[in-house]
Specification:
single chain; about 90 residues; mainly alpha; about 0% strand
Length: about 90
C-alpha cells in the first residue's frame, strides 16, 4: 500500500521566507513600465487572434510595440546611469 504524504508542513514551515525582499520589490517597481507596456502589446495581439487585423489593429500593435521598446530603452538607460561612477559615460 502506498501512503500519500502531504507537503503542507514543509511548505508552511517556510511561509515567512516566501515573501519578496525589499530589493525584489524595488526591482519590480523599476520594471513596472516595461511590464505594463508588454501587457498593452499582448492585449493588442490578443484582439486580433480570432480575426484578420484591420488597419486600426495594425496601428495599435505598432504603437504598443514602440511603447514597449521605449520602456525597455528607458529601463536600460536608467540602469546604466545608476551603475556608472560619477554619472559620466
Amino acid at each position: 500500500m502506498n501512503h500519500v504524504v502531504t507537503l503542507q508542513d514543509a511548505i508552511t514551515a517556510f511561509a515567512d521566507f516566501i515573501e519578496p525582499t525589499n530589493a525584489e520589490l524595488d526591482a519590480i517597481e523599476r520594471e513596472m513600465p516595461v511590464i505594463l507596456a508588454d501587457v498593452d502589446l499582448l492585449d493588442a495581439h490578443i484582439v486580433t487572434l480570432d480575426r484578420t487585423p484591420t488597419e486600426v489593429d495594425e496601428r495599435r500593435i505598432r504603437r504598443a510595440r514602440r511603447r514597449a521598446l521605449a520602456a525597455r530603452v528607458a529601463l536600460v538607460n536608467r540602469t546604466a546611469e545608476a551603475s556608472l561612477p560619477g554619472g559620466a559615460a
